[in-house]
Design goal:
Elements: H1 4-10, E1 12-13, H2 15-22, H3 25-37, E2 41-45, E3 48-51, H4 63-67, E4 75-76, H5 78-84, E5 91-92, E6 94-99, E7 106-108, E8 111-117, E9 124-125, E10 135-136, H6 138-147, H7 155-162, H8 170-180, H9 183-194, H10 197-200, H11 204-211, E11 219-220, E12 229-231, E13 236-238, E14 253-254
Parallel strand pairs: 5-14, 6-8, 11-13
Antiparallel strand pairs: 1-3, 2-3, 4-6, 7-8, 9-10, 12-13
Amino acid sequence: MKYLEALHRLKIFHKKDVVVLTKDTNAAKEILRRYKKQELISQVRRDLYVATDLANKASLATKFEIAGQITHSSCLAYHSALEYHGLAHQVFYELYVSSKEIFNHFNYEGISYRFCPSKSDIGVVNPATDLLVRVTDLERTMLDCIDRIDLSGGIEELVECFAIITYVDENKLLDYLNHFNKQVLYQKAGFTLGYFQKEMKLSDDFFEQCKSKTGKSIRHLTYMSESDTYFKEWKLYAPKNILSFLEQGWEGVMV
């Protein structure tokens, strides 16, 4: 039991971490086998373990911490990042985890961890208060969700989340937009954030820069049957008034 305290400090760990403690591969395997049998630790997935609460055997690591340790590059993204930042309107039991390394979707303690290909490390941070967590910052999260509204929970959820944001760094937004260099993202971001310009304290210059990068292509904000109104300014089809979703007053739970 002499290694248990060290594993509790780690909270979430791989076999190699136990090898470092025991200085012996076979001993590490035996420790993992024994502790798992005694429910002192729990196996999340292949080569990923968490220490458990001695009283109730529940994981000591949060779902956000687990997501940040699945691979070397894994981080919370899309709606899961919105949730971490305290903006989510719906309750999701699925975490979107961006990673350069592919991993199979898996379930642990009622949460489904879903792999999403990583597009870039730009805007990925380790919060000072949650060193085991990796997550896209607010501005990167907003652009990712605009780019993939389906992974943000849908247009209703996106609008509900954006409606409570009171400030964003527009220089970061422009830096990230320039990094991704996608005309369609400039279109979608300029159009969507225009509804929240005052609340988010975005300048007119931000939208002028977005317009200058939109090109000539006509796009759809969401799927065609929903995005049925053409907005000439952005060369974009979108729902007639996305703010109308704020007036519907529904509560949602995603399972």
